[in-house]
Amino acid sequence: MKNKLIVLLVISAMVLCFAGCQGKKDRDRSRDRDNDTEENVDEKELAKAKTVHDVSDLIELNEHGLYFSECKKDKDLYFYFSLLDFDEYIKVNYRGNDYLLVWYYYYNYGEIGTKVNSVEKKVFDGIMHIGVDLEKEKKGNDGCFPHSTGCRLILKLDEDIKDLVVEGQNYHEYDGGYVTVCNKKGILDKDLNFVVPLIYDNIFDYPISDDENGPVYYRVCIDGTGQGLLDENFNQVLSTNYSNIYYFNSDKIIAMINSENGSDNSELKIVWIDGDENVIRSIPGFLHPDDDSRFRCMDGHILISDPSYGSQWGDGVMDEDLNIIIEPKYYTIFWNGEGYYRVENFDQQEALFSSTGEQLTDFE
Asked: Which residues contact 193 (CB under 8 A, 6 or more apart)?
């Protein structure tokens, strides 16, 4: 288990922020800004952007895939495809004409698409049905998944539509979402205005209940600072001073505060804070990401570790009030789903513990 400390820190860093590089500029864009590179773009200027059009020429363009366009001089429309999910479309007015922009993906185990020959458009009762004539070539498989060919379609709209079906697949109109510009991420509304500015290094959906129709908060990350939370209306719930956040209600949030000097693991603290970020209770230790706790603990319990063992970080379990259920001194802990924990010590011996932390069997 000599690499367990490294693994824990890597997990924390991955959860804290994982952002792709999206600051390079396509050389063929008509609005050429040679000096706007990832290295010299002013982050304060990015944060001031009110609409995606203010920064559209800084959005990285995916060069992979095919294009089919019914618009001349269409390169100013390419950035829209970086906003769209695989089942979304967007309608735009460009140079006095209306266009529909949509990704079409062709999947096949034995071949790929090489060219869009033509696109057939038919509208019935306000629903546009699109058929794509794709030129294909054979290609062997490298793994278990089919080949995927992305096709960007820019189609002229002769009449308004209320829905779209492409090769039998239903699409929905773009209603906002994440956008990344020069390594900074924000959120757009359906009209392409920023509701969350380009100030974060990453943003994740954060459901705050098991109800699939319940509100979704947003976990936001700033490199070198930490994580915070925004509510469903993009208001700040928690400042970006924490990591590995567990939200229970507006007055009960459990999170980890990193050491002030950034290197002393013995200073890691797990805190229970209220809605005003007052610390109700704290204990020393490393707080595992919520996915880890859901996988390895029973409902209502949280996985923690203790760095006091040096390279031998010990795992343990606490409840939602920061009460220790199983001391953090074991190699691994797993909830078996049948009423007890399977606990392995550093001598590779196993024992069973109850949900209240009582040891039920000897280590052997």
From this structure: 50, 51, 52
Q: Cβ neighbours of residue 42 under 8 Å, at least 6 residues apart?
A: none
Provide the 8-state DSSP code for 243: E
Lowest pLDDT segment from 6-20, 145-159, 336-350 = 6-20
Q: Pull the structure tokens for residue 294.
A: 């859901």
Q: Taking the mean position of all CA atoms in its chain, how far away is CA 332?
A: 27
**CA–CA separation, 266 and 277 (whole Å):** 22
| Cβ–Cβ under 8 Å, residues 52 and 83 | yes
| pTM for this prediction | 0.81
pLDDT tens track for 78-121:
999 999 999 999 999 999 999 999 999 999 998 999 999 999 99
- The two tokens of residue 143 are 């793994």
Cβ 311 vs Cβ 321: under 8 Å: no
Reduced to 3 states (helix: H, G, I; strand: E, B; else coil), residue 57 is helix
Q: Is the pLDDT of residue 36 over 50?
A: no
What SS3 class is residue 50?
A: coil
